[in-house]
Write a structure and sequence with these properties.
Blueprint: H1 4-9, H2 13-19, H3 24-35, H4 48-75, H5 89-96, H6 102-126, H7 165-169, H8 208-237, H9 243-267, E1 273-274, E2 281-282, H10 323-334, H11 342-357
Helix pairs in contact: 3-6, 4-6, 4-8, 4-11, 5-8, 6-9, 8-9, 8-10, 10-11
C-alpha cells in the first residue's frame, strides 16, 4: 500500500482524485456547485433516497476506477490524465490482438470512471450529503507483472469467474432476464473457473497462448464491467425523486452504455485458443449462429415488460427491484473482492441496501 509519505509527495491527478475520494473530490467542484445549486434543493437538500442512490453509484464508480487503473497501468496510456504504472509490453501486445487502439480505449475508460466518482462525491457534498471514501479497504495485492504499481487495491483481477451470459443476452430476440429467462454463457470456461485478467507475475515469462488467454479474459471482463453499469443506472433511475438526480443517472448511465458497446465489439476479436496452462478455451464465437455472432453488437430486439408486446431493442435487464444488491452480488461472484475484509462487505452491502430502499418521493 502507499505510505503517508508517498501520498504526500504524489501531486498527480490520480493521487488527488483516488486518494482523496471524499475530501479532495468534493473540494474539486463543490465551490461552483454550491454557488449554482438547484433552487429546488435550497430548503432541504437531497432526499434520503436520492442521496442513497448517488452514494451507491459513487462507490461502484470508485470500485470500477480501481479495476480500470490496474488495466491501464499494464496496457493503457500512462499520462497526466491517468498516471500510474509504466506498462507491460508483452501484455500490451497480447491485448492489442483485440484492437490496435486498445491502449487509448483503456485509458479513456479509466479517465471516465475517475470523472464519474469525482463528480458524484462533489455533488453529494455540495448538497450536504455524506460522500463515499473506500481508501481504508485498499489492501489487496497488486500484480507482480512489469509495469504495475505495488500499492494496495480494492479489487482482485487475478482470480476471476466471469459470467459471459451478457453476450448472448444482447443477441437474443426471445430471452430477457427481466422476464425470468436464463441465457447461456458465450465462453463457458470463463464462467466456471478462476482466471486472471492481468498477469500474476512478469508477463514476459509467460507462454504466448497463456498470455493471450489472459488478455482475452480481460477483453470479456471489460464488457462485463460496463454492461453492469449500463443496467444499474437504468434500474436506479426509476427510484430517483428530483429531476436533477434523474438527469445525473441518465447521463452517466449513457456513458456506461457507450463503454459497453465498445468493449463487446473488441471482445469479439478474441481468437479461438486453449490456454496450455489453465485449459481455458475460447471458442469460435461465429460457429454457432446469431446467439454468439461477433458482429451483432447492436442490441437485438427482445421481449420487454410483457410478451404480449412486440419485441423491441432495449438495455437489459432494467428491473429496479434489488438492482443495487444484484450488482454487489455480481461483483462478488466475479471474484473482484476475493481477499477483502468483512467490514468492506458490510459497508458495500449497506450502501446497496440503502439504494434499493429508495423510493420516488422519499
Amino acid at each position: 500500500m502507499e505510505t503517508t509519505e508517498q501520498s504526500e509527495h504524489r501531486t498527480s491527478r490520480r493521487s488527488f482524485l483516488v486518494k482523496g475520494a471524499a475530501v479532495g473530490a468534493g473540494t474539486l467542484g463543490a465551490g461552483r456547485l454550491l454557488a449554482d445549486a438547484s433552487p429546488a434543493f435550497a430548503s432541504g437538500g437531497l432526499t434520503k433516497g436520492d442521496a442513497a442512490i448517488l452514494r451507491l453509484v459513487a462507490a461502484i464508480e470508485i470500485i470500477e476506477t480501481d479495476i480500470w487503473q490496474q488495466y491501464n497501468e499494464l496496457a493503457g496510456i500512462q499520462d497526466s490524465e491517468v498516471p500510474g504504472g509504466s506498462g507491460s509490453p508483452a501484455y500490451t501486445d497480447a491485448v492489442t490482438i483485440l484492437d490496435s487502439d486498445m491502449a487509448q480505449y483503456i485509458h479513456d475508460n479509466t479517465e471516465d470512471e475517475i470523472s464519474h466518482f469525482t463528480f458524484l462525491n462533489a455533488y453529494l457534498q455540495a448538497h450536504g450529503a455524506q460522500t463515499v471514501n473506500l481508501d481504508k479497504f485498499r489492501t489487496l495485492p497488486s500484480s507482480q507483472a512489469t509495469g504495475a504499481q505495488q500499492i494496495g487495491r480494492l479489487t482482485n483481477l487475478m482470480q476471476l469467474t466471469i459470467n459471459t451470459s451478457f453476450w448472448t443476452r444482447y443477441r437474443s430476440d426471445s430471452l430477457n432476464p427481466d422476464l425470468g429467462d436464463v441465457l447461456p454463457n458465450a465462453v463457458p470456461d470463463l464462467a466456471s473457473g478462476q482466471h486472471p485478467a492481468i498477469p500474476r507475475s512478469d508477463a514476459d515469462l509467460a507462454p504466448t497462448d497463456h498470455l493471450n488467454a489472459i488478455a482475452f479474459t480481460a477483453g470479456f471482463h471489460f464488457a462485463w464491467i460496463e454492461q453492469g453499469g449500463t443496467s444499474l443506472y437504468a434500474g436506479l433511475a426509476q427510484r430517483a425523486t428530483h429531476p436533477e438526480v434523474l438527469r445525473i443517472l441518465l447521463s452517466i448511465g449513457g456513458s456506461e452504455i457507450m463503454h459497453f458497446q465498445t468493449w463487446q465489439d473488441k471482445a469479439g476479436n478474441a481468437l479461438p485458443l486453449t490456454d496450455p496452462i489453465t485449459g481455458l478455451t475460447f471458442p469460435d464465437l461465429n460457429a454457432d449462429g446469431e446467439l454468439t455472432q461477433t458482429n451483432l453488437i447492436m442490441p437485438e430486439p427482445t421481449p420487454f415488460l410483457d410478451r404480449k408486446f412486440p419485441i423491441v431493442s432495449i438495455i437489459r435487464p432494467t428491473e429496479t427491484d434489488g438492482a443495487a444488491m444484484a450488482t454487489v452480488r455480481a461483483f462478488t461472484d466475479d471474484g473482484l473482492f476475493i481477499g477483502q475484509s468483512r467490514e468492506f462487505f458490510a459497508v458495500i452491502t449497506g450502501l446497496a441496501q440503502a439504494a434499493d430502499a429508495a423510493r420516488h418521493g422519499t
